[in-house]
């Protein structure tokens, strides 16, 4: 695999991409522990990437609409084979994505 000047492989394997994304998201959203991603933003009538974030204690972290959309798009791009007709939760500590059909209202309370 060819390397770019930084020494990073030009085509990292998917596990490496997943770990790097989890680190980037944790850096972008301080205190975040989990991110729930879906293609149904509340209030939108068409599919639209959306993310909700919780800290380690299960308390929600507010995101701007732009930041929520960017985070959701990044997750969808790194896990393109996931069934995105259902929401998924990304654990930032382990970089593991799991399907999540739980409602977001009331979570962490």
**Measured distance between first and last alpha carbons:** 47 Å
Structural class: alpha+beta
Mean of all residue-level pLDDT scores: 84
Instruction: Evaluate the radius of gyration.
Output: 14 Å
How many E-type strands?
A: 5
Helix content: 25-40%
Beta fraction: 15-25%
Q: Order of strands in the sheet with the most strands? A: 3-2-1-4-5
Shape: globular
Biggest sheet details: 5 strands, antiparallel
Low-pLDDT windows of residues: none
Helix and strand succession? HEEEHEE
Tally of DSSP helical segments: 2
Overview of the molecule:
The chain has helices spanning 14-28, 65-78, and strands spanning 32-38, 50-55, 60-61, 88-91, 96-99. 27% of the residues lie in helices and 21% in strands. A hairpin with a 4-residue loop joins strand 4 (88-91) and strand 5 (96-99). By secondary structure, the chain is an alpha+beta fold. The longest helix is centred in the first third of the chain and has 15 residues, at 14-28. The protein is built from two helices and five strands; from the N terminus they run αβββαββ. The model has no long low-confidence stretch (mean pLDDT 84). Helix 1 (14-28) packs antiparallel against helix 2.
